[in-house]
Design goal:
This protein is α/β, with parallel strands linked by helices and 405 residues long. The protein has 2 domains: 2-245, Rossmann fold (3-Layer(aba) Sandwich), CATH 3.40.50.2000; 272-396, Glycogen Phosphorylase B (Rossmann fold, 3-Layer(aba) Sandwich). It has 15 helices and 17 strands. It has a 9-stranded mixed β-sheet with strand order 3-4-5-2-1-6-7-11-12, sandwiched between helices. A 5-stranded parallel β-sheet has the order 15-14-13-16-17, with helices on both faces. The chain has a 3-stranded antiparallel β-sheet with strand order 8-10-9. A hairpin with a 2-residue loop joins strand 4 (69-76) and strand 5 (79-85). The longest helix has 17 residues, at 108-124. The two termini are 33 Å apart. Bound molecules: adenosine-5'-diphosphate (ADP).
Amino acid sequence: MKILSVASEVFPLIKTGGLADVTGALPGALAALGVSVRTMLPGYPSVLARLPKKTKALHSYADLFGGKARIVAGTLDGLDLIVLDAPHLFDRPGGAYGDGSGVDWPDNWRRFAAFARAAAADIASGAVGDLRPDIVHAHDWQAALTLAYLRYDEQPSPPSVMTVHNLAFQGQFPASIFPELGLPPQAMALDGVEYFGGVGFLKAGLQAAHAITTVSPTYAQEIRTPEFGMGLDGLINLRAGHLHGILNGIDTGQWDPQIDPHLAETFSAKSLKARGKNRRAVEQRFGLDADASPLLCVVSRLTWQKGMDILAAELDAIADLGARLAVLGSGDQGLEGALLAGAARHRGRIGVVVGYDEELSHLLQGGADAILIPSRFEPCGLTQLYGLRYGCVPVVARTGGLPIR
Ligand code: ADP
């Protein structure tokens, strides 16, 4: 079976969160079951820099949503990739979705509509090369319009799966963009791409997909309620017969404490004492006292969803307990400030590193005693699974994929 996975981030090429971990790990896991996955992703600078210079274009566009573009294919880090090289859309500094200061690119609708259109009209349809898949698998709102383009195509198209990694991110845009999408007029309808008077990318994908999956069985139930449904619970309930909750797994090759190159000392369940070196490395990196008190950590986007305001309000209480806390994260500037202020109040007891640091996230899992995850909602969450594998006890909110049931 051949699957076309369409995703806006894929580890190790580009990552902002768990989506990339999963899209990066799933092809390897499925290969073991005889399923081959080709992954289509946007040509961000970090992706193109890794492709050999002379990679030949499989297809060229004179004008794809306002500029020249090409489709190139290659193999990187064991992943079979199809890359949409569209400099006017993806060759810019900053992050995958914004300028790096927390502001989204204003043309995100155009960037991910072009991406979806190329995935549907040129790859999934079989128009380019012999790449037609047996199944199209779209991840999150950035890829979701792929399924709408396929649905409104006159040719028969392969069956499709829409995976929701986080229903909070929906890709909602004003109705004025609709004429530029190149969809037929009948698509702007309640059972099409129309969403509260505008255009909803994720909504369109949920409507068009043959099957819908989300990343834990609990979250699949939660999103059917107004509390977690983020306005889409009505539609999700209508499609409940096609909804499946499949718990995420982790890449046990990337996350293996016995061989992890990011650790100060590798260890296994039989040699937990060796975690001591990692613990000392964490103390040094976070400016914490070296003592025998419990060492807690957080590795997270610093947002309301992740309960980081709850954590910020409890910093004094955590320090009063006699524990130490190391926080690695970035996100809302107000939360960054509140956590840094807590670290200033409790020197040696609380340390905060603001930023994104893949290596340091491994070291924390290998050195801390427990990882705190006070999320308000959590579709699956991966850091608790990494914690379980690294002997870093997850202390979690009872929501989504976090609790063991
Ligand atoms: P989400 O995708 O909602 O952010 P997940 O728990 O599913 O949450 O996945 C988060 C992923 O991002 C994990 O691999 C985690 O280790 C990583 N991560 C989050 N914040 C940071 C950070 N500041 N530095 C390094 N890795 C981070």
